[in-house]
Amino acid sequence: MMMTEHCGSGFLCCHEEILVSSAGNGKSIIGSLVLDAGCGNGKYLGLNPNCYFIGCDISAPLINICADKGHEVLVADAVNLPYRSGYGDAAISIAVLHHLSTEIRRKKAVEELIRVVKPGGLVLITVWAREQEDKALVNKWTPLNQKYLEEWIGPGSPRVRSSSSSFSLKSIPETEENCAVEQLKDVDEESAEKTLHEITCSNSSDGHSPLDSTNKASSLYQQEYFVPWHLPYHRAEVSGASVNAVANGLARKDDKKGAVVYDRYYHVFSEGELERLVSGVDGSVIVDRFYDKSNWCIILEKTSS
């Protein structure tokens, strides 16, 4: 499918395409119900005043922020949306799938988006791309080596969080992210996986940390990262959660930036990967796909009930 040319004003342009022009399908969008799965702090809720929005997110504090703004929202998991089938006219998933650590969960999230829209309804999905525009700051990311790949995406990794954890960390309200990403070279997928396996399986007997990111070669093939996320001190003090997070090794302080730093998991998508993922979902077709501001974006249409 041909990659469409899109304006360079960022995600608002992409989102308006589906929420305002309905991707050229000729259907009226006035009064349409749009479901935002993983709405965060509500940045895109109400983007089009002619549509009715319902947002959901796994984070209760973020949902509280949305509710305080007057949005219709609820706490829910993207892989198990609490809507009946065919409920919405359209759905959006903005920067959500790359936080899911297995292909099974990512595919399940796509299946849920398709399930909850009506036949003929549109779904917009965006994810971080491995092929990035900015090459400068990727060294601040931490590639996951074999140990962490096994814990996060390996066959033995737990699929459900235990409720009996001895330490509970409160969710932190989201702030604007200033993370930049690197443009990684396009390589043959099979050889990339082989090289990544060789890199991540090498032992760390040289004394480096298991999360040592000094091996620059690995960045050419890496798709699993921990990305630093900075929470200003004043926000951390208000939330009260960061003190415990730092004490328990779940975050670190950066006095120069005046922030507590958390590591967020990202699976960056290589070119064509999102298409392959959604092509395995029954009852939908790809309407458009495009690259915008270091993100891969795709629009799907539901073809059957």
TrEMBL record:
Keywords of this entry: Methyltransferase, Transferase
Q: Name one GO cellular component term.
A: cytoplasm
Q: Name one GO molecular function term.
A: tRNA binding
Boundaries of every Methyltransferase type domain copy: 35-125
Picking any one GO biological process from the record gives:
tRNA wobble uridine modification
Key word Ion transport present: no
The record's section on Pfam families has: Methyltransf_11
- Write down the InterPro entries for this protein, in alphabetical order: AlkB_tRNA_MeTrf/Diox, Methyltransf_11, SAM-dependent_MTases_sf
State the name under which the record lists this protein. Answer: tRNA (Carboxymethyluridine(34)-5-O)-methyltransferase
Going by the entry's taxonomy, the superkingdom of the source organism is recorded as Eukaryota
- Cross-referenced SUPFAM superfamilies: S-adenosyl-L-methionine-dependent methyltransferases
Where are the annotated coiled coils located? none
Asked whether the keyword Methyltransferase is assigned, the reply is: yes
